[in-house]
Automatic annotation (TrEMBL):
Name the UniProt record assigns to this protein: Sporulation stage II protein D amidase enhancer LytB N-terminal domain-containing protein
GO biological process entries: cell wall organization; sporulation resulting in formation of a cellular spore
Domain of life: Bacteria
A family per Pfam: SpoIID
Gene Ontology molecular function: penicillin binding
SUPFAM superfamilies: beta-lactamase/transpeptidase-like (SSF56601)
GO cellular component: plasma membrane
Length: 666
């Protein structure tokens, strides 16, 4: 029985059967143990659904959902700019360059629309003019930072006592870990906005007073912005608008083990709200991993049925790859190799078209050519986004997600590898064959990485770098064909397929997947040398490196006062990579330290966690070896092994002694 079923509470205006249906649907929509959702009956303050209560009661950074509180603070203290601001995608605010999630920018934009579209630049600028106490007061007025009383064991969360200028700028845009709240607190926030400044709360039964907002005119602005988000903003690609609902999404960065997680809060119907919902997706991007499930739960609570879905029926040996997401496309030209385009299943007499987003749909330039999904069939397609042109094998689908055009390339694994292997390695034949086997294994083992978002893998280094036909080369085609269908299995063929990792250069010693990623699969740490020779990857320009930064700049990047030693390794693995460090008196995991420094100072500054540091004259000098995480295949080492006469099978055995070559599972 799903845990959510154990916490279906009394339903006013509903039935126990509704609670059961919600719990079953939540289990299907958000199956991960670290996903969560809750639905509140606004008439009573009761939880109709509490899916994965252990997560609902934990505190996390809330991301862009905080923009609701920032907007309220600005309205309440009359700090809203008199004229619309201009978002061009980036701006210098508070002495630092800030970026918007929409790289091309939102143009001239005022508060309500900025909230509906979740414009980062607008809210960074708003944070720069807000007083810290006004912003903190708004957070407290919404009930953030203290338990709601809805479920036992709920954490209070984190609210700072004061905010610096940098804190205000980041907190106002939801880009800070200094504020941490529980999903139940965000559900309460949705209920307060839905209730025009107040909401019933289960906590009131024990004498606890729920949040009350005094500026009702400001609350109406928040309500209108959330309605616009559903109709034509960040939630336009969901069904929330058809429910006459309102909502807000958020994506938050989190250094404690997860890189991002997605949020959605909402309520419906808009004029007379009956239910509010919060959804939390562990590795989310807001609207398609949190808002889609949250909207469906809200629809079900209102008496609707689950929508008919048309999932992609993957042919054997194929992948769906999300491409060009990093460019944030809002206008795209798609051309086929001769096949006709299809608009929501209807064949058009077109082999090419330019699509723009309009009211959550793809507009192809004529009233009869507006699609939820554009499909380009065939064995080849060209995509143009401004100055960027990419050619892909296979078919392509396009839809609207998170206010941008989402593009998905559907093709065979072998064709996918023709683009991947060439972008990942510029080596000789045997090293390329080894890379082909590793990349094939990694792709097939990680095929469910983005499953909840409706695709298999992305085209970034998060999965594997893939730029379509741009990186194809004859020698890569030969390597892929020579190893067709071959993957790295465990010691026994019946074991599930596990990822085979790779990196640029290990600096002399690799590490295990368990120590670096916390993975459970069997892997080995390898001394990367043969006989008495030096490290195989000694020819890498990253074999030995250093990086210097002032103590003050490092502390600023980490968000920690520059007090005490700047860097100490507390624990390292057998490969010499830092697992836990202490920096200015604060303990962090090695990955968290690396992520923070990379995000603020550049991801090529600390090239790996095989690093030590010393302080000289107010500067911190980091000295390290290798480039990348250091797990699995060392690409420079593989190339050197080929030079010494190793075939690809022997190269793989050197880096994966516990794995065997075999066929992928069906």
């Amino acid at each position: 029985m799903p845990l959510g079923l154990l916490l279906v509470l009394a339903v006013a205006g509903g039935t126990p059967e509704l609670g059961t249906r919600l719990a079953e649907r939540a289990e299907a929509l958000l199956p991960g143990e670290e996903d969560a959702a809750a639905v509140m009956d606004l008439a009573t303050g009761e939880l109709v659904l509490a899916h994965h209560p252990a997560i609902l009661t934990r505190a996390f950074p809330p991301g862009s959902v905080l923009k609701l509180a920032s907007a309220y603070a600005a309205l309440d203290t009359h700090r809203v700019p008199e004229e619309p601001l201009r978002c061009s995608g980036r701006a210098e605010i508070g002495g630092r360059e800030r970026t918007c999630w929409l790289h091309s920018g939102h143009g001239r934009i005022e508060l309500t629309r900025a909230l509906a579209l979740s414009c980062n630049i607008y809210f960074h600028a708003l944070g720069d003019v807000l007083e810290g106490e006004a912003l903190l007061r708004a957070l407290r007025d919404f009930g953030l930072g203290r338990p709601t009383g809805a479920l036992p064991g709920e954490e209070g969360g984190v609210l700072p006592q004061a905010l610096s200028r940098e804190d205000r700028i980041r907190v106002a845009a939801g880009d800070s870990e200094r504020v941490q709240v529980t999903p139940l607190q965000l559900l309460q926030m949705a209920a307060v906005v839905a209730g025009r400044g107040q909401a019933r709360s289960r906590g009131e039964g024990s004498g606890r007073q729920g949040p009350r907002l005094g500026n009702l005119a400001a609350v109406e602005v928040l309500r209108e912005a959330m309605r616009q988000a559903a109709e034509s903003g960040t939630l336009a690609a969901t069904r929330l608008g058809t429910l006459e609902g309102a909502g807000k999404t958020g994506t938050a960065r989190w250094d404690k083990g997860w890189h991002t997680h997605g949020w959605f809060i909402g309520f419906a119907p808009f004029r007379a709200p009956r239910f509010a919902v919060v959804a939390f997706a562990r590795e989310g991007r807001g609207a398609h991993q949190a808002a889609q499930p949250g909207t469906e739960l809200l629809s079900l609570a209102l008496g609707g049925d689950a929508p008919e879905s048309t999932p992609w029926e993957r042919p054997p040996g194929h992948l769906r790859v999300r491409v060009l997401e990093k460019l944030g496309p809002v206008r795209a030209t798609v051309m086929t190799d001769g096949g006709r385009l299809r608009c929501d299943g209807k064949t058009l007499e077109l082999t090419g078209a330019t699509a723009e987003i309009d009211q959550g749909l793809l507009d192809l330039g004529r009233p009869d050519r507006r699609c939820r999904e554009l499909y380009a069939p065939g064995e080849g397609v060209v995509v143009r986004l401004g100055a960027t042109t990419r050619r892909y094998r296979g078919a392509l689908r396009a839809t609207v997600l998170d206010g941008q055009i989402a593009l998905f390339n559907e093709l065979s694994v072998e064709d996918y590898l023709r683009g991947v292997v060439g972008s990942e390695l510029a080596g000789k034949p045997e090293a390329l064959k080894a890379q082909a086997v590793v990349s094939r294994t990694y792709a097939l083992a990680g095929r469910n990485r983005h499953e909840r978002a409706g695709y298999d893998v992305c085209d970034l280094t998060h999965c594997q770098l893939y730029r379509g036909r741009q990186d194809e080369r004859p020698e890569v085609d030969k390597a892929v064909e020579a190893t067709r269908g071959r993957v790295l299995r465990g010691r026994h063929a019946r074991e599930p397929l596990a990822p085979a990792y790779f990196h640029s250069s290990c600096g002399g010693t690799t590490s295990t997947a368990a120590s670096v990623f916390g993975a459970s699969e069997d892997s080995s740490a390898v001394v990367d040398r043969v006989g008495t020779s030096g490290p195989l990857c000694a020819g890498s320009p990253h074999h030995r490196w250093h990086f210097e930064v002032s103590r003050q700049e490092l502390a600023r990047a980490l968000g920690i006062p520059a007090e005490g030693p700047a860097f100490e390794v507390l624990r390292e693995d057998s490969g010499g990579r830092a697992l836990e460090v202490r920096t200015f008196g604060v303990r962090l995991s090695g990955e968290a330290f690396h992520a923070r420094v990379g995000r603020e100072l550049g991801y090529q500054t600390l090239k790996s966690l095989a690093v030590k540091a010393r302080e000289v004259g107010g500067k911190v000098r980091f000295e390290g070896r290798g480039l990348g995480h250091g797990v699995g295949l060392c690409q420079y080492g593989a190339t050197e092994l080929e030079r010494r006469g190793y075939g690809y099978e022997k190269i793989l055995k050197h880096y994966f002694p516990e794995r065997t070559l075999g066929e992928p599972p069906l």
